[in-house]
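Q: Start with the shorter request: fold the first protein.
A: Done. Sequence, then structure:
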Amino acid sequence: MIILPGGKGTHIEFGIALGQSKRIFIYSPGGEINNFETTSTFYHLPEIEKCFGTVNELMDTIDSKIGLLN
Protein backbone atom coordinates (compact mmCIF):
# COMPACT_ATOMS: atom_id res chain seq x y z
CA MET A 1 0.00 0.00 0.00
CA ILE A 2 1.23 3.47 -0.85
CA ILE A 3 0.01 6.41 1.18
CA LEU A 4 0.59 9.67 -0.63
CA PRO A 5 2.57 11.79 -0.47
CA GLY A 6 5.24 9.15 -0.19
CA GLY A 7 8.78 9.66 1.00
CA LYS A 8 12.09 8.57 -0.45
CA GLY A 9 11.98 5.06 -1.78
CA THR A 10 8.21 4.93 -2.20
CA HIS A 11 8.39 4.68 -5.96
CA ILE A 12 11.25 2.19 -5.87
CA GLU A 13 9.18 -0.14 -3.69
CA PHE A 14 6.15 0.58 -5.88
CA GLY A 15 8.11 -0.55 -8.94
CA ILE A 16 9.34 -3.69 -7.21
CA ALA A 17 5.81 -4.60 -6.12
CA LEU A 18 4.48 -3.92 -9.62
CA GLY A 19 7.21 -6.08 -11.16
CA GLN A 20 6.34 -8.92 -8.78
CA SER A 21 2.62 -8.67 -9.62
CA LYS A 22 1.75 -7.74 -6.04
CA ARG A 23 -1.60 -6.17 -5.28
CA ILE A 24 -1.10 -2.41 -4.96
CA PHE A 25 -3.37 0.07 -3.21
CA ILE A 26 -2.61 3.78 -3.49
CA TYR A 27 -4.25 6.07 -0.96
CA SER A 28 -4.79 9.74 -1.73
CA PRO A 29 -7.31 11.31 0.70
CA GLY A 30 -8.47 14.08 -1.63
CA GLY A 31 -8.26 12.19 -4.92
CA GLU A 32 -5.21 14.11 -6.17
CA ILE A 33 -3.96 10.87 -7.68
CA ASN A 34 -6.43 11.24 -10.55
CA ASN A 35 -4.57 14.28 -11.92
CA PHE A 36 -2.69 12.87 -14.92
CA GLU A 37 -0.52 15.99 -15.21
CA THR A 38 0.99 15.77 -11.72
CA THR A 39 1.15 12.05 -10.98
CA SER A 40 3.12 9.07 -12.20
CA THR A 41 1.80 7.23 -15.23
CA PHE A 42 2.13 4.02 -13.24
CA TYR A 43 -0.59 5.18 -10.83
CA HIS A 44 -3.10 4.83 -13.67
CA LEU A 45 -2.39 1.22 -14.64
CA PRO A 46 -5.45 -1.02 -14.49
CA GLU A 47 -3.94 -3.27 -11.82
CA ILE A 48 -3.57 -0.38 -9.35
CA GLU A 49 -6.37 0.05 -6.80
CA LYS A 50 -6.89 3.76 -6.08
CA CYS A 51 -8.37 4.64 -2.70
CA PHE A 52 -9.78 7.98 -1.53
CA GLY A 53 -11.50 9.41 1.53
CA THR A 54 -10.84 8.77 5.19
CA VAL A 55 -8.44 6.24 6.63
CA ASN A 56 -11.45 4.23 7.82
CA GLU A 57 -12.76 4.13 4.24
CA LEU A 58 -9.32 2.99 3.10
CA MET A 59 -9.36 0.14 5.61
CA ASP A 60 -12.90 -0.82 4.56
CA THR A 61 -11.80 -0.91 0.92
CA ILE A 62 -8.80 -3.09 1.67
CA ASP A 63 -10.89 -5.39 3.85
CA SER A 64 -13.54 -5.77 1.16
CA LYS A 65 -10.89 -6.57 -1.48
CA ILE A 66 -8.61 -8.91 0.42
CA GLY A 67 -10.20 -9.53 3.82
CA LEU A 68 -7.30 -8.58 6.08
CA LEU A 69 -9.38 -7.34 8.98
CA ASN A 70 -11.31 -10.54 9.71
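Q: Next, the second protein, separately.
A: Sequence, then structure:
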Amino acid sequence: MSAIKKLVGQTAIYGLSSIVGRLLNYLLVPLYTYIFGSATQHYGVVSELYAWVAFLMVFLTFGMETTYFRFLNSEKDKDKVFNNSFVSVLLINALIILPFLIFSQPLANAMLYPEHVEYIILLLLIVSLDAITALPLAKLRAENKALKFAGIQFSSIGINIIFNLIFLLGFYDPEYPEGGIQMILMANLFASFAKLVLLRKSFFRIKFRLDGALTKRMLKYAFPIALAGFAFIINETIDRILLKQLLYANTGDLVYAEAQVGIYSACYKLAMLVTIFLQAYRYAAEPFFFAQEKEKDKNKTYVKVMNYFVAALCLCFLAVALNINIFKHFITNPAYHVGLNVVPILLMANIFSGIYINQSIWYKLSNQTKFGAYIAIGGAVITLSLNFLFIPTYGYMACAWTTFLVYGGQMMASYLLGQKHYPIPYNLRKFSLYLGSAVLFFMLCKWMSLEVGTLQFVIHNSFLLLFLGIFWFIERPKFR
Protein backbone atom coordinates (compact mmCIF):
# COMPACT_ATOMS: atom_id res chain seq x y z
CA MET A 1 0.00 0.00 0.00
CA SER A 2 1.42 3.41 -0.97
CA ALA A 3 2.02 6.13 1.62
CA ILE A 4 -0.83 8.25 0.27
CA LYS A 5 -3.27 5.34 0.29
CA LYS A 6 -2.28 4.58 3.87
CA LEU A 7 -2.94 8.19 4.88
CA VAL A 8 -6.29 8.16 3.08
CA GLY A 9 -7.24 4.91 4.79
CA GLN A 10 -6.31 6.19 8.23
CA THR A 11 -8.07 9.49 7.58
CA ALA A 12 -11.20 7.59 6.52
CA ILE A 13 -11.33 5.69 9.81
CA TYR A 14 -10.47 8.72 11.94
CA GLY A 15 -12.86 10.66 9.76
CA LEU A 16 -15.66 8.24 10.54
CA SER A 17 -15.28 8.92 14.26
CA SER A 18 -14.56 12.61 13.80
CA ILE A 19 -17.03 13.49 11.05
CA VAL A 20 -19.91 11.31 12.21
CA GLY A 21 -19.11 12.19 15.81
CA ARG A 22 -19.03 15.92 15.11
CA LEU A 23 -22.21 15.66 13.06
CA LEU A 24 -23.93 13.87 15.91
CA ASN A 25 -22.71 16.53 18.31
CA TYR A 26 -23.82 19.21 15.85
CA LEU A 27 -27.30 17.71 15.99
CA LEU A 28 -27.34 19.06 19.52
CA VAL A 29 -27.26 22.61 18.11
CA PRO A 30 -30.82 22.31 16.72
CA LEU A 31 -31.81 20.84 20.09
CA TYR A 32 -30.24 23.72 22.03
CA THR A 33 -31.66 26.42 19.76
CA TYR A 34 -35.08 24.75 20.00
CA ILE A 35 -34.98 24.30 23.79
CA PHE A 36 -33.81 27.84 24.51
CA GLY A 37 -36.18 29.30 21.88
CA SER A 38 -35.71 32.90 20.82
CA ALA A 39 -33.72 33.63 23.99
CA THR A 40 -30.42 33.37 22.10
CA GLN A 41 -28.46 34.56 25.15
CA HIS A 42 -28.68 31.12 26.80
CA TYR A 43 -27.02 29.43 23.84
CA GLY A 44 -24.49 32.27 24.01
CA VAL A 45 -23.61 31.20 27.56
CA VAL A 46 -23.06 27.59 26.45
CA SER A 47 -20.86 28.74 23.55
CA GLU A 48 -18.74 30.99 25.72
CA LEU A 49 -18.17 28.27 28.31
CA TYR A 50 -16.94 25.89 25.62
CA ALA A 51 -14.62 28.60 24.31
CA TRP A 52 -13.00 28.55 27.75
CA VAL A 53 -12.71 24.75 27.53
CA ALA A 54 -10.59 25.14 24.39
CA PHE A 55 -8.30 27.59 26.19
CA LEU A 56 -7.77 25.30 29.15
CA MET A 57 -7.10 22.24 26.98
CA VAL A 58 -4.04 23.96 25.49
CA PHE A 59 -2.61 24.62 28.96
CA LEU A 60 -3.42 21.19 30.32
CA THR A 61 -2.04 19.10 27.43
CA PHE A 62 0.94 21.48 26.97
CA GLY A 63 1.78 20.32 23.44
CA MET A 64 2.53 16.82 24.70
CA GLU A 65 0.62 15.01 21.95
CA THR A 66 2.87 16.36 19.20
CA THR A 67 5.91 15.97 21.47
CA TYR A 68 4.99 12.33 22.05
CA PHE A 69 4.87 11.66 18.29
CA ARG A 70 8.18 13.48 17.78
CA PHE A 71 10.10 11.55 20.47
CA LEU A 72 8.42 8.26 19.65
CA ASN A 73 10.33 8.25 16.35
CA SER A 74 13.67 9.23 17.87
CA GLU A 75 13.81 7.32 21.19
CA LYS A 76 14.37 3.59 21.59
CA ASP A 77 12.31 3.20 24.78
CA LYS A 78 8.77 3.91 23.53
CA ASP A 79 7.15 3.14 26.88
CA LYS A 80 9.36 5.69 28.64
CA VAL A 81 8.33 8.36 26.11
CA PHE A 82 4.64 7.67 26.78
CA ASN A 83 5.17 7.51 30.54
CA ASN A 84 7.02 10.82 30.58
CA SER A 85 4.40 12.50 28.39
CA PHE A 86 1.48 11.26 30.46
CA VAL A 87 2.96 12.00 33.90
CA SER A 88 3.91 15.51 32.69
CA VAL A 89 0.30 16.16 31.66
CA LEU A 90 -0.95 14.77 34.97
CA LEU A 91 1.31 17.10 36.97
CA ILE A 92 0.32 20.11 34.86
CA ASN A 93 -3.35 19.28 35.49
CA ALA A 94 -2.77 19.16 39.23
CA LEU A 95 -0.92 22.49 39.20
CA ILE A 96 -3.63 24.31 37.22
CA ILE A 97 -6.98 22.66 38.03
CA LEU A 98 -6.68 22.52 41.82
CA PRO A 99 -6.04 26.28 42.29
CA PHE A 100 -8.82 27.06 39.80
CA LEU A 101 -11.25 24.89 41.79
CA ILE A 102 -10.22 26.60 45.02
CA PHE A 103 -10.78 30.05 43.49
CA SER A 104 -13.80 29.10 41.39
CA GLN A 105 -16.03 31.85 42.84
CA PRO A 106 -13.67 34.72 41.88
CA LEU A 107 -13.38 33.11 38.44
CA ALA A 108 -17.16 33.00 38.13
CA ASN A 109 -17.34 36.67 39.10
CA ALA A 110 -14.76 37.67 36.47
CA MET A 111 -16.62 35.69 33.78
CA LEU A 112 -19.91 37.46 34.72
CA TYR A 113 -21.46 34.33 36.27
CA PRO A 114 -21.41 35.35 39.96
CA GLU A 115 -24.50 33.30 40.80
CA HIS A 116 -23.44 30.21 38.87
CA VAL A 117 -20.12 28.99 40.22
CA GLU A 118 -21.29 25.47 39.33
CA TYR A 119 -20.67 26.33 35.65
CA ILE A 120 -16.99 26.86 36.43
CA ILE A 121 -16.62 23.72 38.56
CA LEU A 122 -18.26 21.48 35.94
CA LEU A 123 -16.20 23.09 33.17
CA LEU A 124 -12.93 22.47 35.07
CA LEU A 125 -13.79 18.82 35.71
CA ILE A 126 -14.67 18.25 32.02
CA VAL A 127 -11.48 19.80 30.69
CA SER A 128 -9.29 17.95 33.20
CA LEU A 129 -10.73 14.57 32.23
CA ASP A 130 -10.32 15.38 28.53
CA ALA A 131 -6.69 16.43 29.05
CA ILE A 132 -5.84 13.29 31.04
CA THR A 133 -7.24 11.02 28.29
CA ALA A 134 -5.52 12.93 25.44
CA LEU A 135 -2.21 11.03 25.69
CA PRO A 136 -3.72 7.51 25.81
CA LEU A 137 -5.77 8.45 22.73
CA ALA A 138 -2.61 9.76 21.03
CA LYS A 139 -0.94 6.42 21.81
CA LEU A 140 -3.72 4.61 19.95
CA ARG A 141 -3.12 6.87 16.94
CA ALA A 142 0.64 6.22 17.06
CA GLU A 143 -0.02 2.46 17.15
CA ASN A 144 -2.42 2.76 14.17
CA LYS A 145 -5.30 1.47 16.32
CA ALA A 146 -7.74 3.68 14.49
CA LEU A 147 -10.73 1.39 15.04
CA LYS A 148 -10.24 1.31 18.80
CA PHE A 149 -9.74 5.08 18.80
CA ALA A 150 -12.96 5.52 16.83
CA GLY A 151 -14.85 3.17 19.16
CA ILE A 152 -13.86 5.15 22.26
CA GLN A 153 -14.71 8.46 20.63
CA PHE A 154 -18.09 7.17 19.44
CA SER A 155 -18.90 5.83 22.89
CA SER A 156 -18.13 9.16 24.52
CA ILE A 157 -20.12 11.09 21.92
CA GLY A 158 -23.05 8.70 22.22
CA ILE A 159 -23.17 9.11 26.00
CA ASN A 160 -23.07 12.88 25.62
CA ILE A 161 -25.98 12.87 23.16
CA ILE A 162 -28.08 10.39 25.15
CA PHE A 163 -27.79 12.37 28.39
CA ASN A 164 -28.45 15.65 26.57
CA LEU A 165 -31.66 14.19 25.17
CA ILE A 166 -32.71 12.69 28.51
CA PHE A 167 -31.97 15.83 30.49
CA LEU A 168 -33.25 18.47 28.08
CA LEU A 169 -36.30 16.67 26.70
CA GLY A 170 -37.26 15.05 30.00
CA PHE A 171 -36.36 17.49 32.75
CA TYR A 172 -35.78 20.96 31.26
CA ASP A 173 -37.86 23.73 32.81
CA PRO A 174 -38.29 26.80 30.52
CA GLU A 175 -38.83 28.89 33.65
CA TYR A 176 -35.26 28.05 34.74
CA PRO A 177 -33.05 28.08 31.60
CA GLU A 178 -29.89 28.07 33.75
CA GLY A 179 -30.82 24.49 34.63
CA GLY A 180 -30.55 23.60 30.95
CA ILE A 181 -26.98 24.94 30.86
CA GLN A 182 -26.14 22.82 33.91
CA MET A 183 -27.64 19.75 32.22
CA ILE A 184 -25.55 20.28 29.08
CA LEU A 185 -22.37 20.46 31.17
CA MET A 186 -23.35 17.40 33.22
CA ALA A 187 -23.94 15.35 30.06
CA ASN A 188 -20.48 16.34 28.82
CA LEU A 189 -18.93 15.41 32.17
CA PHE A 190 -20.42 11.90 31.96
CA ALA A 191 -19.09 11.56 28.40
CA SER A 192 -15.58 12.65 29.42
CA PHE A 193 -15.61 10.23 32.35
CA ALA A 194 -16.61 7.42 29.98
CA LYS A 195 -13.37 7.95 27.99
CA LEU A 196 -11.41 7.62 31.23
CA VAL A 197 -13.12 4.31 31.98
CA LEU A 198 -12.63 2.93 28.45
CA LEU A 199 -8.92 3.83 28.53
CA ARG A 200 -8.35 2.51 32.05
CA LYS A 201 -5.88 -0.20 30.94
CA SER A 202 -3.48 2.51 29.74
CA PHE A 203 -3.36 3.96 33.26
CA PHE A 204 -2.50 0.66 34.96
CA ARG A 205 0.90 0.59 33.20
CA ILE A 206 1.89 4.10 34.22
CA LYS A 207 4.90 4.49 36.50
CA PHE A 208 4.64 7.74 38.40
CA ARG A 209 8.21 8.85 37.85
CA LEU A 210 9.96 11.01 35.30
CA ASP A 211 13.25 10.61 33.47
CA GLY A 212 14.84 14.00 34.23
CA ALA A 213 16.98 14.29 31.09
CA LEU A 214 14.22 13.11 28.76
CA THR A 215 11.62 15.32 30.45
CA LYS A 216 13.85 18.36 30.02
CA ARG A 217 14.26 17.69 26.29
CA MET A 218 10.55 17.00 25.84
CA LEU A 219 9.48 20.14 27.66
CA LYS A 220 11.95 22.20 25.66
CA TYR A 221 10.36 20.85 22.47
CA ALA A 222 6.81 21.15 23.83
CA PHE A 223 6.96 24.70 25.21
CA PRO A 224 6.89 26.53 21.85
CA ILE A 225 4.13 24.16 20.67
CA ALA A 226 2.08 24.92 23.80
CA LEU A 227 2.72 28.63 23.32
CA ALA A 228 1.70 28.39 19.67
CA GLY A 229 -1.35 26.34 20.68
CA PHE A 230 -2.39 28.97 23.19
CA ALA A 231 -1.98 31.74 20.62
CA PHE A 232 -3.86 29.61 18.06
CA ILE A 233 -6.75 29.18 20.48
CA ILE A 234 -6.81 32.94 20.99
CA ASN A 235 -7.30 33.27 17.23
CA GLU A 236 -9.96 30.55 17.21
CA THR A 237 -12.10 31.25 20.28
CA ILE A 238 -11.27 34.57 21.92
CA ASP A 239 -13.77 36.37 19.68
CA ARG A 240 -16.73 34.80 21.50
CA ILE A 241 -15.31 35.77 24.87
CA LEU A 242 -14.44 39.32 23.80
CA LEU A 243 -17.77 39.72 22.00
CA LYS A 244 -19.61 39.25 25.27
CA GLN A 245 -17.23 41.29 27.42
CA LEU A 246 -16.84 44.25 25.00
CA LEU A 247 -20.51 44.50 24.03
CA TYR A 248 -21.49 44.36 27.69
CA ALA A 249 -18.94 47.06 28.54
CA ASN A 250 -20.20 49.17 25.63
CA THR A 251 -23.96 48.78 26.18
CA GLY A 252 -24.33 47.66 29.79
CA ASP A 253 -26.84 45.05 28.52
CA LEU A 254 -25.64 41.54 29.44
CA VAL A 255 -28.62 39.81 27.79
CA TYR A 256 -27.90 41.57 24.48
CA ALA A 257 -24.19 40.72 24.69
CA GLU A 258 -24.86 37.04 25.36
CA ALA A 259 -27.51 36.96 22.62
CA GLN A 260 -24.97 38.23 20.06
CA VAL A 261 -22.58 35.49 21.16
CA GLY A 262 -25.37 32.94 20.69
CA ILE A 263 -26.16 34.13 17.14
CA TYR A 264 -22.50 34.25 16.11
CA SER A 265 -21.71 30.86 17.66
CA ALA A 266 -24.65 29.11 16.01
CA CYS A 267 -23.65 30.43 12.57
CA TYR A 268 -20.00 29.62 13.31
CA LYS A 269 -21.06 25.98 13.63
CA LEU A 270 -22.00 25.97 9.94
CA ALA A 271 -18.56 27.32 9.03
CA MET A 272 -16.94 24.63 11.14
CA LEU A 273 -18.22 21.93 8.79
CA VAL A 274 -14.89 22.51 6.98
CA THR A 275 -13.02 21.82 10.21
CA ILE A 276 -14.77 18.46 10.64
CA PHE A 277 -12.76 17.22 7.68
CA LEU A 278 -9.71 19.05 8.97
CA GLN A 279 -9.92 17.39 12.40
CA ALA A 280 -10.21 13.92 10.87
CA TYR A 281 -7.23 14.64 8.64
CA ARG A 282 -5.10 15.95 11.53
CA TYR A 283 -5.60 12.79 13.59
CA ALA A 284 -4.08 10.73 10.79
CA ALA A 285 -1.64 13.26 9.30
CA GLU A 286 0.59 14.15 12.26
CA PRO A 287 1.90 10.64 12.98
CA PHE A 288 1.96 9.97 9.20
CA PHE A 289 4.19 12.98 8.45
CA PHE A 290 6.65 12.06 11.21
CA ALA A 291 6.77 8.47 9.94
CA GLN A 292 7.53 9.75 6.40
CA GLU A 293 10.49 11.83 7.59
CA LYS A 294 13.10 9.17 6.74
CA GLU A 295 11.66 8.32 3.32
CA LYS A 296 13.63 9.39 0.24
CA ASP A 297 10.57 10.82 -1.58
CA LYS A 298 9.09 12.52 1.49
CA ASN A 299 8.84 15.96 -0.15
CA LYS A 300 7.02 14.53 -3.14
CA THR A 301 4.55 12.91 -0.73
CA TYR A 302 4.07 16.14 1.24
CA VAL A 303 3.37 18.09 -1.96
CA LYS A 304 0.87 15.55 -3.28
CA VAL A 305 -0.94 15.42 0.06
CA MET A 306 -1.19 19.22 0.14
CA ASN A 307 -2.67 19.35 -3.39
CA TYR A 308 -5.47 16.95 -2.48
CA PHE A 309 -5.95 18.61 0.88
CA VAL A 310 -6.48 22.12 -0.53
CA ALA A 311 -8.91 20.82 -3.16
CA ALA A 312 -10.89 18.91 -0.51
CA LEU A 313 -11.16 22.02 1.68
CA CYS A 314 -12.34 24.13 -1.27
CA LEU A 315 -14.95 21.49 -2.09
CA CYS A 316 -16.24 21.68 1.49
CA PHE A 317 -16.36 25.48 1.22
CA LEU A 318 -18.48 25.37 -1.93
CA ALA A 319 -20.77 22.63 -0.60
CA VAL A 320 -21.74 24.75 2.41
CA ALA A 321 -21.53 28.28 0.95
CA LEU A 322 -23.56 27.46 -2.18
CA ASN A 323 -26.20 25.60 -0.17
CA ILE A 324 -26.48 27.94 2.81
CA ASN A 325 -30.28 28.13 2.37
CA ILE A 326 -30.40 24.41 3.09
CA PHE A 327 -27.78 24.33 5.85
CA LYS A 328 -29.42 27.23 7.71
CA HIS A 329 -32.28 24.92 8.71
CA PHE A 330 -29.74 23.10 10.83
CA ILE A 331 -30.26 26.08 13.19
CA THR A 332 -33.88 25.47 14.06
CA ASN A 333 -34.79 28.92 15.36
CA PRO A 334 -34.91 31.74 12.74
CA ALA A 335 -33.80 34.20 15.42
CA TYR A 336 -30.22 33.03 14.71
CA HIS A 337 -30.39 33.38 10.89
CA VAL A 338 -29.58 37.09 11.03
CA GLY A 339 -25.93 36.09 11.42
CA LEU A 340 -25.63 33.87 8.30
CA ASN A 341 -23.50 36.49 6.49
CA VAL A 342 -20.50 35.41 8.57
CA VAL A 343 -20.57 31.83 7.26
CA PRO A 344 -18.73 32.25 3.89
CA ILE A 345 -16.13 34.51 5.55
CA LEU A 346 -15.47 31.95 8.27
CA LEU A 347 -15.47 29.05 5.80
CA MET A 348 -12.65 30.66 3.82
CA ALA A 349 -10.86 31.55 7.06
CA ASN A 350 -10.97 27.90 8.06
CA ILE A 351 -9.48 26.92 4.69
CA PHE A 352 -6.56 29.26 5.40
CA SER A 353 -6.27 27.75 8.87
CA GLY A 354 -6.25 24.23 7.43
CA ILE A 355 -3.48 25.05 4.96
CA TYR A 356 -1.47 26.70 7.73
CA ILE A 357 -1.85 23.65 9.99
CA ASN A 358 -0.81 21.34 7.14
CA GLN A 359 2.23 23.51 6.41
CA SER A 360 3.22 23.57 10.08
CA ILE A 361 4.82 20.16 9.72
CA TRP A 362 8.00 21.92 8.49
CA TYR A 363 8.87 23.41 11.87
CA LYS A 364 7.91 20.23 13.73
CA LEU A 365 10.10 18.04 11.51
CA SER A 366 13.03 20.45 11.70
CA ASN A 367 12.73 20.89 15.49
CA GLN A 368 12.19 24.64 15.00
CA THR A 369 8.91 24.83 16.87
CA LYS A 370 9.79 28.37 17.96
CA PHE A 371 8.63 29.56 14.53
CA GLY A 372 5.19 28.09 15.17
CA ALA A 373 5.09 30.10 18.38
CA TYR A 374 6.17 33.29 16.58
CA ILE A 375 3.49 32.91 13.90
CA ALA A 376 0.75 32.10 16.39
CA ILE A 377 1.71 34.89 18.79
CA GLY A 378 1.76 37.39 15.92
CA GLY A 379 -1.71 36.21 14.92
CA ALA A 380 -2.94 36.43 18.51
CA VAL A 381 -1.73 40.04 18.85
CA ILE A 382 -3.55 41.01 15.64
CA THR A 383 -6.67 39.09 16.71
CA LEU A 384 -6.84 40.84 20.06
CA SER A 385 -6.09 44.25 18.55
CA LEU A 386 -8.67 44.08 15.74
CA ASN A 387 -11.37 42.63 17.98
CA PHE A 388 -10.82 45.27 20.65
CA LEU A 389 -10.94 48.00 18.01
CA PHE A 390 -13.94 46.90 15.96
CA ILE A 391 -16.28 44.70 18.06
CA PRO A 392 -17.88 47.70 19.85
CA THR A 393 -18.87 49.13 16.44
CA TYR A 394 -19.37 46.13 14.15
CA GLY A 395 -20.17 43.30 16.58
CA TYR A 396 -19.72 39.76 15.35
CA MET A 397 -18.90 40.84 11.76
CA ALA A 398 -15.65 42.23 13.19
CA CYS A 399 -14.96 38.79 14.69
CA ALA A 400 -15.49 37.06 11.34
CA TRP A 401 -13.29 39.40 9.27
CA THR A 402 -10.56 39.36 11.93
CA THR A 403 -10.49 35.56 11.79
CA PHE A 404 -10.25 35.69 7.98
CA LEU A 405 -7.36 38.19 7.98
CA VAL A 406 -5.39 36.48 10.74
CA TYR A 407 -5.61 32.96 9.32
CA GLY A 408 -4.73 34.25 5.86
CA GLY A 409 -1.70 36.07 7.27
CA GLN A 410 -0.55 33.03 9.24
CA MET A 411 -0.83 30.83 6.16
CA MET A 412 1.40 33.16 4.14
CA ALA A 413 3.90 33.67 7.00
CA SER A 414 4.26 29.92 7.51
CA TYR A 415 4.82 29.34 3.79
CA LEU A 416 7.53 32.02 3.51
CA LEU A 417 9.37 30.90 6.64
CA GLY A 418 9.06 27.24 5.65
CA GLN A 419 10.60 27.87 2.24
CA LYS A 420 13.57 29.49 3.97
CA HIS A 421 14.19 27.00 6.78
CA TYR A 422 12.74 23.66 5.55
CA PRO A 423 11.78 24.04 1.88
CA ILE A 424 8.98 21.87 0.53
CA PRO A 425 8.24 22.63 -3.15
CA TYR A 426 4.46 23.13 -2.88
CA ASN A 427 2.61 23.63 -6.17
CA LEU A 428 1.41 27.23 -5.90
CA ARG A 429 -0.31 27.06 -9.31
CA LYS A 430 -2.65 24.37 -8.06
CA PHE A 431 -3.23 26.27 -4.81
CA SER A 432 -4.18 29.37 -6.77
CA LEU A 433 -6.36 27.43 -9.20
CA TYR A 434 -8.34 25.60 -6.52
CA LEU A 435 -8.75 28.60 -4.20
CA GLY A 436 -9.43 31.00 -7.09
CA SER A 437 -12.02 28.70 -8.66
CA ALA A 438 -13.83 28.23 -5.34
CA VAL A 439 -14.02 31.99 -4.70
CA LEU A 440 -14.99 32.75 -8.31
CA PHE A 441 -17.81 30.19 -8.35
CA PHE A 442 -19.13 31.51 -5.03
CA MET A 443 -19.04 35.13 -6.22
CA LEU A 444 -20.81 34.23 -9.50
CA CYS A 445 -23.63 32.56 -7.60
CA LYS A 446 -23.83 35.53 -5.24
CA TRP A 447 -23.96 37.91 -8.23
CA MET A 448 -26.75 35.92 -9.93
CA SER A 449 -28.84 36.30 -6.76
CA LEU A 450 -31.34 33.59 -7.70
CA GLU A 451 -34.52 33.06 -5.72
CA VAL A 452 -34.45 30.16 -3.31
CA GLY A 453 -35.81 27.09 -5.07
CA THR A 454 -35.03 24.25 -7.45
CA LEU A 455 -33.33 26.45 -10.08
CA GLN A 456 -30.98 27.95 -7.51
CA PHE A 457 -30.15 24.50 -6.13
CA VAL A 458 -29.39 23.08 -9.60
CA ILE A 459 -27.23 26.00 -10.74
CA HIS A 460 -25.32 26.31 -7.48
CA ASN A 461 -24.53 22.62 -7.35
CA SER A 462 -23.57 22.62 -11.04
CA PHE A 463 -20.69 24.88 -10.00
CA LEU A 464 -19.86 22.40 -7.25
CA LEU A 465 -19.70 19.60 -9.83
CA LEU A 466 -17.65 21.80 -12.14
CA PHE A 467 -15.08 22.30 -9.40
CA LEU A 468 -15.00 18.56 -8.79
CA GLY A 469 -14.47 18.05 -12.53
CA ILE A 470 -11.55 20.50 -12.58
CA PHE A 471 -9.94 18.69 -9.66
CA TRP A 472 -10.45 15.27 -11.27
CA PHE A 473 -9.09 16.44 -14.63
CA ILE A 474 -5.92 17.81 -13.01
CA GLU A 475 -5.22 15.10 -10.42
CA ARG A 476 -6.59 11.93 -12.05
CA PRO A 477 -3.21 10.80 -13.47
CA LYS A 478 -1.81 10.95 -9.91
CA PHE A 479 -4.21 8.27 -8.68
CA ARG A 480 -2.76 5.58 -10.93
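Q: Describe the second briefly.
A: The first helix runs from residue 3 to 26. The chain has one domain: 3-479.
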